[in-house]
Design goal:
Layout (H helix, E strand, L loop, with lengths): L24 E4 L6 H10 L4 H16 L21 E3 L12 H9 L2 H8 L2 E6 L2 E7 L1 H5 L3 E4 H7 L1 H7 L10 H9 L4 E5 L9 E6 L6 E2 L2 E6 L4 E9 L7 E3 L2 E6 L4 E10 L3 E3 L2 E6 L4 E10 L2 E4 L2 E4 L5 E10 L4 E4 L2 E4 L5 E10 L4 E10 L6 E11 L5 E10 L4 E11 L2 H9 L4 H17 L4 H15 L5
Parallel strand pairs: 3-7, 6-9, 7-10, 8-11, 9-12, 10-13, 11-14, 12-15, 13-16, 14-17, 15-18, 16-19, 17-20, 18-21, 19-22, 20-23, 21-23, 22-24, 23-25, 24-26
Antiparallel strand pairs: 1-2, 3-4, 5-6
């Protein structure tokens, strides 16, 4: 007898983000996680033998690992009830007019075609388990920039993919990395040749429509010596009454003197477990910049990691988390200083309301050989009521004496004095609180391109409407 999942989900009216489409597909895997399901999936995708073997090895690793003994409760995630692969009823398209109407309308509502026309050098759009649309401006192609979906990359750029795929995040890293290695599908591949500066951002958007399904996209970016890129990732899903799972993987390789900015706004519905893994390997005098906005999801466990491998490598992390009723958002960042004269700057902000739980969980490790390294960590948490919770759990591991490290954490309630002052100037209590929240997140929004700053502010307004006080 099939075991049924039942879950009660609290959620706000998220407007366009919650519009569901009828689930139409050309192939759907059975629920569960078996070698047979994975072999069939790999066959459907026409993958090379090495990838099939990689998937099966990852499955073995998955079964050998336990859930992490720390962090939020994720015992509700039952892989026997998750569909790991749903191929939408369309092929990869290079023109929006060829995308099926219902899928195109979804991305139209989310503003992806408009953003592509006005602000982007390339776009990938994934729907459930596969990329349904991809484009890149011809001038980038002429410069040797590669931007395509991972399935195409495996066949057309197999040598590069094989060199880097799951080398930054090996399956043995943790249970959900192994799960990803077994069932990954979709995602983006970017290769920027030496010295090429991509001035206009690239963006991939991931939309999970089907209930009870997982999305496991893989993003692999290589930025060669002296090159630069800004990559934007957007994610959303409509509300369902069953658990959905997101266990994607992002691997970034930033070579000597290169710069990569990776911006994300994750806007999952509150039936989603977001167990994503992101990691950058940063070479000599190179820079990784993370800009992260975490909204939605029932539970998030997300800690982008920067491994500063080369002398003078630099990491910047700017993040905002908004946890509301029924949400536990356990987020942060990890930085490994593995070479001398490396530096990191971490600026994390969280907001909690209505009993939401926001946790900053971070690691800064400075290795024995990483002398003259410098790190600054700033964590600020704003609680909008007495029911909410906020925690800061920093781990600082210093293995040599020649370092400069500072850590500052502030946790507090929204200021009654500030609210009173604004109300005395004729502003309503609700708008006064919203103004304080918007001011609190302003350092994050200013790091985003205009249209994504607007989206982030819209998400904050959705969370705030009629719910604080």
């Amino acid at each position: 007898m099939e075991k049924k999942q039942k879950t009660y989900i609290e959620d706000i009216d998220r407007g366009i983000y919650d519009i569901k489409n009828e689930v139409r597909y050309s192939y759907k895997a059975e629920k569960g996680l078996t070698p047979e399901i994975i072999k069939e999936m790999s066959k459907e995708k026409n993958e090379p033998q090495w990838m099939t073997e990689f998937r099966l090895h990852s499955l073995e690793v998955y079964h050998s690992l336990d859930l992490p003994p720390w962090g939020p409760d994720i015992s509700e995630v039952d892989m026997e009830n998750i569909i790991t692969y749903i191929r939408p009823d369309t092929n990869l398209n290079t023109s929006w007019k060829d995308v099926p109407e219902d899928i195109k309308e979804t991305f139209d509502r989310l503003g992806i075609p408009k953003a592509e026309r006005e602000a982007l050098a390339g776009v990938g759009a994934q729907y459930d388990s596969e990329v349904v649309y991809h484009s890149i401006k011809q001038e980038l192609v002429d410069q040797g920039v590669i931007y395509t979906d991972m399935e195409t990359a495996i066949h057309e750029y197999e040598a590069i993919v094989k060199e880097y795929f799951m080398k930054a995040v090996p399956p043995k890293d943790h249970k959900f990395a192994a799960l990803h290695g077994a069932v990954w599908s979709g995602g983006s591949f970017v290769y920027v040749p030496q010295g090429i500066r991509v001035e206009i951002p690239l963006q991939s958007y991931f939309r999970l429509n089907a209930p009870g399904a997982g999305q496991f996209e893989h993003t692999l970016i290589v930025v060669e010596k002296g090159a630069s890129l800004h990559f934007i990732e957007g994610c959303s899903a409509p509300m369902h009454s069953v658990i959905n799972l997101h266990a994607g993987c992002v691997e970034l390789f930033v070579k000597e003197d290169a710069t990569l900015r990776y911006s994300t706004i994750e806007n999952w519905s509150r039936n989603m477990y977001n167990l994503n893994t992101k990691r950058a390997i940063v070479d000599k005098n190179a820079t990784i910049e993370w800009v992260s906005g975490s909204f939605g999801s029932k539970v998030s466990m997300l800690y982008p990691m920067s491994i500063l491998k080369g002398e003078g490598a630099r990491a910047e992390f700017t993040g905002i988390t908004f946890a509301a009723q029924g949400q536990t958002l356990d987020t942060g960042t990890k930085v490994i200083h593995a070479a001398p004269y490396t530096s990191s700057n971490i600026n994390s902000k969280s907001i909690s309301k209505g009993g939401g739980v926001a946790v900053y969980r971070g690691v800064v490790k400075i290795a024995e050989n990483a002398h003259h390294s410098k790190s600054t960590v700033t964590c600020e948490s704003l609680m909008l009521d007495n029911a909410s919770k906020s925690d800061t759990i920093p781990v600082i591991d210093i293995r040599n004496d020649e370092v400069d490290l500072g850590h500052e954490a502030k946790i507090g309630r929204i200021s009654e004095e500030a609210i009173f002052y604004l109300m005395s100037r004729g502003i309503s209590e609700e708008e006064a609180k919203a103004m304080i929240v918007r001011g609190f997140v302003e350092p994050i929004t200013k790091e985003l391109p205009l249209e994504y700053a607007v989206e982030l502010n819209n998400l904050i307004n959705l969370e705030l409407e009629g719910t604080i006080g």
